[in-house]
Amino acid sequence: MTKNDMITQLYPLPTDERSLKGTYLSHQLRQHSQTSGRAFVYGNFVVSLDGRIAIPHPTKEGMTVPKNT
Length: 69
Prior knowledge:
With 69 residues, the chain is an alpha+beta fold. The protein contains 1 helix and 4 strands; from the N terminus they run E-E-H-E-E. The strands form 2 sheets. Strands 1-2 form a two-stranded antiparallel ribbon. Strands 3-4 form a two-stranded antiparallel ribbon. The longest helix has 8 residues.
């Protein structure tokens, strides 16, 4: 990745192209949490083409990321 990489913001609508740099710090969630008195949970997942974020590990306990097939 380079400093000029762009991503597509899917939510909230409308969608928009934005720079990858600074994306995860630009939301200012701490300030929103303090003023609203509510906690914010932020999730970011990589999913397989069928929508899974993890599957049972085939040889040991726990979960693993699906293989790229």
